[in-house]
Design a protein that fits this description.
The protein is α/β, with parallel strands linked by helices. The protein is 37% helix and 17% strand. Helix 2 packs parallel to helix 4 and helix 8 crosses helix 9.
Length: 257
């Protein structure tokens, strides 16, 4: 079956496993976590989503670092020559070992188109996507919401996506251990004027990154299995050929599930 999976991937038919890394607020350690994951998932790719505004949007153009790149269509810059810059998020992804990095620059109404264009360029088995708003359009196989162990100023997009999180990752700016980080996060939640329900999402800290990797690998296996089952229903003859080397289309009756 592993050989079959490889052959199906080479035909470009299996979509990559998608891991989402979003943030409850700014400066929650999203990029740092992305790099930690990329270092442990060799061969995976990364997508960075940056939303910009037209200069006529009413916001200060100087405060929007990509405003001059916004066009009538989203811009996707792929490859080291297109987006590597030391110290920037995309550069850090390359340095962490990403097989490829895709930088999506999109206006407010271009996010779906931009992220789908970037995903269509992914050639590896899995990709990690940094951003919040794309989860309104794309279902991730595993979604991680990053938050500070202490106070967070929630983004509007985070309020929508927190319910989709499979896990919450707590970052700290000091040397707090996992237990202390969880206590501080719970204290912050308790003081909120609204209920921030995690719906059973697991809470992780840096100490738990190996456990996060195991969850990603587990979800990756499920995602690929579901895809193959769907292909067995939709294209039984083709899949029988891929999963059984030497067999030609039509050698067996369609498989029914």
């Amino acid at each position: 079956m592993r050989e079959g999976l490889r052959q199906v991937k080479e035909t470009g038919n299996i979509r990559p496993a998608i891991v989402a890394v979003s943030g409850l607020s700014s400066n929650t350690g999203k990029t740092t976590l992305m790099c930690e994951l990329l270092e442990r998932l060799p061969g995976w790719e990364a997508i960075k989503l940056t939303r910009g505004h037209y200069r006529s949007c009413g916001k200060d153009p100087q405060g929007c670092c990509v405003s001059d790149l916004i066009r009538d269509e989203p811009l996707v810059r792929s490859g080291r020559e297109e987006n590597y810059e030391a110290g920037k998020d995309t550069g850090r992804f390359w340095d962490a070992g990403a097989a490829n990095v895709h930088w999506v620059i999109a206006g407010e109404d271009q996010v779906e188109d931009g992220i789908r264009r970037a995903l269509s360029r992914v050639q590896s088995a899995g990709v990690i996507v940094e951003g919040n708003s794309f989860l309104d359009f794309i279902e991730a196989d595993f979604a991680i919401m990053c938050a500070r162990a202490g106070e967070n100023r929630m983004k509007t997009s985070a309020r929508r996506t927190v319910a989709k999180a499979d896990a919450v990752y707590l970052s700290t700016i000091d040397q707090s251990d996992g237990a202390r980080a969880r206590i501080r996060f719970d204290e912050w939640r308790a003081d909120l004027s609204i209920d921030l329900e995690l719906d059973g999402a697991a809470v992780y800290t840096k100490e738990d990154i190996p456990a996060i990797i195991k969850q990603i690998q587990y979800r990756f296996g499920i995602a690929q299995f579901r895809y193959l089952c769907k292909k067995l229903v939709d294209e039984p003859s083709k899949m029988a050929t891929v999963c059984s080397p030497g067999r030609k289309p039509g050698d067996q009756a369609p498989i029914k599930i």
